[in-house]
Specification:
CATH class of the largest domain in chain A: Mainly Alpha
CATH topology of the largest domain in chain A: Cytochrome C Oxidase, Chain A
Shape of chain B: globular
Order of helices and strands of chain A: HHHEEHHHHHEEHHHHHHHHHHEE
Number of domains of chain A: 3
Distance between the termini of chain A: 36 Å
Strand order of the largest sheet of chain A: 1-2
Helix content of chain B: over 70%
Distance between the termini of chain B: 39 Å
Structural class of chain B: mainly alpha
CATH superfamily of the largest domain in chain A: Cytochrome c oxidase-like, subunit I domain
Oligomer: heterodimer
Radius of gyration of chain B: 20 Å
Structural class of chain A: mainly alpha
Strand content of chain B: under 5%
CATH superfamily of chain B: Cytochrome c oxidase, subunit III, four-helix bundle
Radius of gyration of chain A: 24 Å
CATH architecture of the largest domain in chain A: Up-down Bundle
CATH architecture of chain B: Up-down Bundle
CATH topology of chain B: Four Helix Bundle (Hemerythrin (Met), subunit A)
Largest sheet of chain B: none
Helix content of chain A: 55-70%
Chain lengths: 577, 256
């Protein structure tokens, strides 16, 4: 039987279109995903800037959008959340870095289904275009937030953006579901079936484990959202009443009756909570990888890390109800969801202490990727600590509709995951593009971003405890809220500075891709398989040979070894170790 | 989702010296299909939850299915169960490299599947004629969810069976299946009167025809025993889903 490298379905493509547009190469597809997410994150960040400006200067006339009306604010909020969660947090870590590095790290020449891989990228792209088009139709973008709660999202007449804009929004989500399902299926099959000789499951880098578990979550969660979205589209356009009870809009009785908005919330959050882990798990994987590499120590508790991620993934499917304490729920259910939610603290704490244990007594090299990985741990802890607060039904009823929740999920799901991506970018750009990124500007970017994000999101917790409600476009008319306006001012200034700092990142990225110093094959002296091959890797990743793996993924500081690290392909180190 | 299996032989069942043994000894296409089915079962699961949720929250749920409906649905069930048997026989025939009988059993499976779709379509037309719509029904005007859940669940399933028949047709007959599919589409379009929903629904076949054409011309190949087995997985799954829908939607809403 021929080797996989030779029977591999596609030869190196010729011609621009097959090589860079409709490429089957997982590396090109990974870069496509990466730049799609980079585009999306700028759109999402611009929307958040508009919101922050409006919150502090509610009557300001802004360039491009003019004066922001309340419904415009809600549109911005909806599109910011949706674009960030679907097209950045889900797309970049998994579709981008996962696509590029999963096959290389397990020693495979490509994904198991390259055509499916290409289709999943272009389907994601179509979903993004459809999502953006919601801005430009009559009525504009929808108002219902990224959670799309009915009846607001299910009745066409409910608001200016709830016409065609909301249909496009749901359509885009449905298309994105299909794309994610194709991607998840590919990731899982590749991990299960295409590992190089010696790459047992327990020798996989933790990044591969995180992409694998993320793919399991995606496979099981997005199918549910797809169904829920189809039902919502039917409610909107076919007059069914899955989610809509008898409602009156502008004094007019709608034709729906007997439906339950709670059904949507159950289905949505059955997807929505695993989605949180879809966003954060790849960040955990890359953080483990980088902390170990730059501490020059094996990862502390490799197996515990794997089982902790599996536990987080498993528990992630059992806690969706904690998003619905405010929606009306039996106290017994709330109790069960509360206990299960707090259980997630256990594997999360295991991971955190293992990261700290990895750094302890390490010979740490404070390069930019390492700084971002440490920043990830910091944000993960700060954002995670407010989780047990919100897991209490009693506290949640007080805090749910306030900025406390906004601060919580932005720190842990938004910024922590973004820090994971930054870490991955600084770590892997040398391999992807063959050039090192600038270290000095990387550090400047890191410190401004770290302090800036804390300055934006920490005050939100105080704001929320003080009663600052979320999803309101203006706080000027409420007496007690006016006293909180200085906090909004502080956050807005912090946001402007932090967003300005992102230009440093983008300029550094593009400058480095074209003009940066050439990277060697293994600039970080790391051990995993992507550092054994050329920079950038050839079409089949390993130049016609399939690597054979003899060691675990994080063999640093091995006693008696010639250098302080042992590659996975090096001869097996003694059983004594 | 026939495209899952249409392509790429890398890392399937060969290459044992170079790679770790795949999980459960399964080749990539088979793993991929199992994973797709896992995901699809969650998609159907959400629809079944929507059905059950609505049913439990509406005490006035109608139970309109009389003996004729149940008889019809039982015949449909028998068709699907028989098709599972013929599918197994097709897989066995493929595994002993008996091309003629592989094709014959696949065709038998397709005939049963088509019979299911036609019977189901007639049932739908009958219910629509009685006044059932996605947003209302004549038996319980306060429970529009009856029609909504019925058409969503069975419609989704019918779509899966239709995709399955096209999928098996591509495996069994390859390019020779395309004119047959095109003919069925055209005949269906002209024979079904325009006031019937399937006059438009039959365009699903056109979409299937286009997808099948793209697949067959971009990646022409002989389908082997593995392809037959993978298509069989899909087919059995579709049968299995019906085994949930039949009691939930029909048997629990009988009026005898």
């Amino acid at each position: 039987m021929a080797t996989s490298a030779t029977t591999h379905a596609h030869a190196a493509p010729q011609g621009f279109i097959r090589k860079y547009i409709f490429s089957l190469d997982h590396k090109v597809i990974g870069i496509q995903y990466f730049f799609l997410a980079l585009t999306a994150v700028w759109v999402g960040m611009f929307l958040s800037l508009l919101m922050r400006l409006h919150l502090y200067w509610p009557n300001a006339v802004l360039p491009l959008v003019g004066e922001i009306k309340p419904e415009t604010y809600l549109s911005l909020l909806t599109m910011h959340g949706t674009i960030m969660i679907f097209f950045v947090l889900t797309t970049a870590p998994q579709g981008g870095f996962g696509n590029y590095f999963l096959p290389i790290q397990i020693g495979a020449p490509d994904m198991a289904f390259p055509v499916l891989n290409m289709l999943s990228f272009w389907t994601t792209f179509v979903a993004f275009v459809v999502m953006l088009s919601a801005f430009f139709v009559t009525g504009g973008a929808p108002l219902h937030g990224w959670t799309g709660y009915p009846p607001l999202s299910a009745v066409q007449q409910a608001g200016p953006g709830e016409g065609l804009g909301a249909d496009l929004w749901i359509g885009s989500i449905a298309i994105f579901c299909i794309a994610s399902l194709m991607g998840a299926l590919n990731f899982l099959t590749t991990t299960l079936d295409m590992r190089a000789k010696g790459m047992t499951l327990m020798r996989m880098p933790l990044t591969c484990w995180s992409w694998f578990i993320t793919a399991i979550l995606g496979l099981l969660a997005f199918g549910v959202l797809l169904s829920a979205g189809i039902l919502l589209l039917m409610d909107r356009n076919l007059g069914t009443s899955f989610y809509v009870p008898l409602v009156v809009v502008n004094g007019q009785i709608m034709g729906h009756k007997g439906g339950s908005p709670l059904l949507w919330q159950h289905l949505f959050w059955f997807f929505g909570h695993p989605e949180v882990y879809i966003a954060i798990l790849p960040g955990m994987g890359v953080t483990s990888q980088i902390l170990s590499t730059f501490s020059r120590k094996p990862i502390f508790g490799y197996k515990a890390m794997v089982y902790a991620m599996l536990a987080i993934g498993f528990l992630g499917f059992m806690v969706w109800g904690h998003h619905m304490f405010m929606s009306g729920m039996s106290p017994y259910s709330a109790f069960a969801f509360s206990i299960l939610t707090m259980c997630i603290g256990v594997p999360s704490a295991i991971k955190t202490f293992n990261w700290l244990g990895t750094m302890l007594h390490g010979r740490i090299r404070f390069k930019t990727p390492m700084l971002y990985a440490i920043g990830f741990v910091s944000l993960f802890v700060s954002g995670g600590l407010s989780g047990p607060f919100l897991a209490q039904p009693v506290l949640d009823i007080q805090l749910h509709d306030t900025y406390f929740v906004v601060g919580h999920f932005h720190l842990i799901m938004g910024v922590a995951a973004i820090f994971g991506m930054f870490a991955a970018t600084y770590y892997w750009v040398p391999k992807m593009f063959g050039r090192m990124m600038n270290e000095f500007w990387g550090r400047v970017h890191f410190f401004i971003t770290l302090i800036g994000t804390y300055a934006i999101f920490m005050p939100m917790h105080y704001l929320g405890i003080a009663g600052g409600t979320r999803r309101y476009s203006q706080y000027t008319e409420v007496a007690y809220m006016q006293k909180l306006m200085p906090i909004h001012g502080f956050m807005t200034y912090a946001a402007i500075i932090t967003i300005a700092a992102q230009f440093i990142f983008v300029i550094n990225l593009f400058w480095s891709i074209f003009k940066g110093p050439k990277a060697s094959d293994n600039p970080w002296e790391a051990t995993t398989l992507e550092w054994t091959t050329a920079t950038p890797p050839p079409h089949d990743n390993f130049g016609g040979v399939t690597p054979v793996v003899h060691n675990g993924p994080y063999e640093y500081g091995v006693p008696g070894a010639a250098r302080d690290y042992v590659m996975q392909t090096d001869p097996a180190i003694g059983a004594a170790h | 989702m026939a495209d899952v299996v249409l392509d790429h032989t890398a890392a399937s069942h060969g290459a044992a010296g170079q790679y770790e043994a795949p999980l459960f000894g399964a080749y990539s296409k088979k793993v991929g299909m199992w994973l797709f089915l896992a995901s699809d079962s969650l998609t159907f699961g959400a629809l079944l939850v929507a059905f059950s949720y609505n049913r439990l929250s509406n005490p006035a749920w109608p139970t309109p299915f009389r003996v004729e409906s149940i008889t019809n649905a039982s015949i449909m069930t028998a068709c699907l169960l028989s098709s599972s048997l013929t599918m197994v026989l097709a897989v066995f025939a493929a595994q002993r490299h008996d091309r003629a009988w592989t094709r014959n059993w696949l065709l038998a499976t397709m005939v049963f599947g088509t019979a299911f779709i036609v019977l189901h379509g007639m049932e739908w037309s009958h219910l629509i004629h009685e006044g059932m719509t996605p947003f209302g029904n004549p038996w319980a005007p306060t429970v529009p969810q009856f029609g909504g859940t019925f058409f969503t669940l069975t419609g989704m399933h019918m779509l899966h069976v239709t995709i399955g028949v096209i999928y098996l047709g591509v495996i069994a007959l390859r390019k020779w299946f395309l004119p047959i599919l095109g003919a069925i589409w055209l005949v269906g379009f002209f024979v079904i009167p325009s006031d019937n929903v399937f006059h438009y629904g039959i365009h699903v076949l056109l979409v299937g025809l286009i997808v099948a054409t793209v697949i067959l011309f971009l990646k022409p190949k002989d389908y082997d025993a593995h392809d037959v087995e993978v298509s069989g997985l899909y087919w059995h799954f579709v049968d299995l889903v019906w085994m949930f829908i039949f009691p939930l939607v029909y048997l629990m809403s009988t009026k005898i």
